[in-house]
Design goal:
Largest sheet: 4 strands, mixed
Shape: elongated
Strand order of the largest sheet: 2-3-6-4
Number of helices: 10
Length: 278
């Protein structure tokens, strides 16, 4: 009788937490790779998964899922989702790469309007979702919002990670639009937007002028802004996606008329002038 009572009250010790296992095996995040362990179980999604070792910047996601999941672009999004806690060091080039895939409907978007739920450094998330005129309005704002419906879902405090990063993170949801708000090639849109935001505190004509060779810069910049019906005294963060749509349409016509214009790079012109002076 005594032994049965002993067995009835016997309890196993509690299982170690993930945090304790990390300490026990002396696992360390590699700072150079922007690694942090996300341990808050309220934020992770347990389930079946297949781990693929590779570089997310080069991995062919379009080969990861069966053909049966593909949908037409105009249909509802496919049952394919990109969910990622992105290393801060690659988050910007990676989202630009995926946005270019959206514009070309290839890569992970060969399946249709694949949705993305991605974690970024909070500052990057604020840029992606920034509205016209806000301090966070940037190149990323335009490039994301002309192709996708972009929503800031939640903020994750730094203490949810081990080791604790110096900044908070935020989750952003992307749903590709059935029709982009700017219907020009991605590289052309990117060039116009990048130049506009070069001098974000100055009037927009200053940055947009860098699209043109110095010899005719003032004339051509004035022509661009007039035909696009854009006030030259607006600053880049004040420009709407609609403004950029008009600017890209006009710039495309200029490039069609002058085949060398799109290849022009004002930094290269400055470098050549500097070499001549030297």
């Amino acid at each position: 009788m005594a032994s049965s009572r002993t067995l009835g009250t016997f309890r196993l010790p509690p299982l170690p937490t993930i945090r304790e296992i990390i300490k026990l095996f002396r696992l360390q995040a590699v700072k150079q790779l922007s690694q942090n362990f996300l341990l808050d179980l309220r934020l992770t999604a347990p389930g079946k998964l297949r781990i693929i070792h590779g570089d997310v910047l080069t991995f062919k996601i379009e080969r990861a899922f069966p053909e049966s999941l593909k949908r037409r672009w105009e249909d509802d999004p496919p049952n394919v989702h990109i969910i990622g806690n992105l290393p801060f060091s690659v988050s910007t080039p990676l989202i630009i790469k995926w946005l270019e895939n959206v514009s070309q409907r290839n890569g992970p978007f060969a399946y249709g309007r694949t949705r993305m739920m991605l974690t970024f450094q909070k500052e990057v998330a604020e840029r992606l979702t920034a509205t016209t005129g806000s301090k966070q309005r940037s190149r990323l704002s335009i490039m994301a919002q002309y192709l996708c419906d972009v929503q800031h879902i939640l903020t994750i405090p730094g203490q949810a990670f081990v080791p604790k990063p110096e900044v908070d993170s935020a989750v952003v949801h992307f749903t590709p639009l059935t029709r982009p708000r700017i219907e020009q090639p991605f590289k052309l849109v990117e060039k116009v937007v990048q130049n506009a935001f070069q001098f974000r505190r100055k009037y927009c004509h200053r940055g947009l002028g860098m699209l043109f060779p110095e010899a005719r810069r003032l004339e051509r910049t004035g022509e661009l802004l007039e035909l696009a019906d854009v006030d030259p005294t607006l600053r880049a963060p004040q420009l709407t996606v609609s403004h950029f749509n008009s600017l890209c349409d006009v710039y495309r016509k200029m490039c069609d008329e002058d085949p060398h214009l799109f290849a022009y790079n004002f930094r290269e012109e400055l470098r050549q002038k500097s070499e001549k002076r030297g």
